[in-house]
Amino acid sequence: MHKHIAIIGAGISGLTTIKQCLDNDLIPICFEQNSSVGGVWQSEEPHSPVYKSVLTNTSKEMSTFSDFPIPADWPTYLNHSQIEKYIDMYAENFNLLPHIKFNTTVLKVSILPDKRWKVKYIIQCEREEKEEIFDFVIVCSGLIRKPRWPEYKGMNLFKGEQMHSHKYKRAVDFKNKRVLVVGCGSSALDIAVELTHAASQVYLSVRKGKLPWITPRFINDKVLDHTSRFSAHMIPPSIRGRRLENNIMKSFPYPSHLKPTDPLIASYPIVNFEIFQCLTAGKVIVKPNIKELKSENKQIEFVDGTVLEDIDVVIYSTGYNIDNSFLEEHIFTGGCEVEQEFGKDFYRLNWLYKLLFPPKYPNIAFIGFTVGAGAIWPVSEMQARYVISHIKGFIKPLPSQSEMEKSIRNSYESIRKKYCRSARNALRINYVLYMETLSKEIGCYPYFYEIIKKFGFRFWKLIMFGTFTPIHYRLLGRNSWDGAREAITLYNQDNFKPITNEKSINS
User: Fold this and answer.
1) Tens digits of per-residue pLDDT, 344-380?
2) With contact defined as beta carbons under 8 Å apart, do 192 and 278 qualify?
3) Helix 274-281 crosses helix 186-195 at what angle (to 10 degrees)?
4) pLDDT tens digit string along 302-316?
5) Last residue of a domain, one of 442, 457, 476
6) Domain residues for 474?
7) Contacts of 503 (CB under 8 A, 6+ apart)
8) Counts for the chain of helices (H) and strands (E), in that order
9) What EC number(s) does this enzyme carry (predicted)?
């Protein structure tokens, strides 16, 4: 008997989950509250953080789905319109759209006595609520759902404009204005840089008073994330981190008062090198955390006692909260005791085994609730392959509840020791270790002996020393793809050649 699977969200994670269901004779129904696919990458998404000038932080070779390569002749880093086009191509190629209920809001997901799930939803053009029963629920609603606003004294009195970064779309809207951007993540730095082309002055408020580690998209004329399988496995992360720190400092020595205090490997580096040019030219001026917003003269006072006047706009690039309001919160947070123990360090707490399964609840999984140094798209795809393999019984059953609880606890304790305590690090994965571990259990890991036996020694060298693209995971095992070898070869045509400065600029 075919199992019916509810998928919540038709973003990147939802689309690849639909595909994995279809590949394995499951019946998926995806609920999407908007009228198109792509989630945050679609302009229509109301809380989308995507602005017109956005570029991906990971290369196309590392970001691609494993059995539908991003065209090799596309730029190394993709812009907004190219990402939208690729998503639409993926959905059309695998005929995913007929399995999606668009303009449909999921109101509540609740477990039944027989361990199946009831999904209550409403279609926007209809008034009547509907219900359907599913054998399994896969939540793909994502991390970027509910804008998170900071709390500063005087926010209600400030006479200037205040907005969250998800409302920002283009710099020209802020022409000749004095703008303060609050935050130091990817969006904050991108917005600050872009605003310098229109605003009269841009300020950047950094909560800890220090900049994060900031990397360019190209290092020594090579693509930043084009690591090899050999490097990923043989060179310790600490050494790779120190090498990258040294390269960054050679390219732009941080002002001593802004230099990060945490090692790169323990923090979350940001890809944006244009910010340094703006800092040098004084187009962006870094300020510490805000102490108070004042009503007179649109003043803002900072914790170091300095005051700025005539600030026309404050843009809060302060992230998002997970919004799974259709579920009881304890299902994915682990309950009050867990939240009290770990919540003070990680406000994005997800109590999930392998960042996928809540130990206390069968037949439900969460896909795409991770962050890491690698691209998120192939991680979501690998997670979807793993969850579907679990549903179909192709892999060993999950451990007992107590074993899963212990594994999650050990993971959070390890994060506390290794990394800075922050929201990002609560969901942090070691990209290579995570992908390799799941692929071995699924049966798609590219074991070197098997690669040599099937494809020959020369191709094995390409797998070992070429770009570590996720297409590697389609060479062997169930759901392998006949086009994987050709795609990997095509992606590595320029792998051992330096990238010219002209190409770096144009990409």
Assistant:
1) 666 667 889 999 999 999 899 999 988 876 788 999 9
2) yes
3) 50
4) 999 999 999 999 999
5) 442
6) 446-494
7) 76
8) 17, 24
9) 1.14.13.148, 1.14.13.8, 1.6.3.1
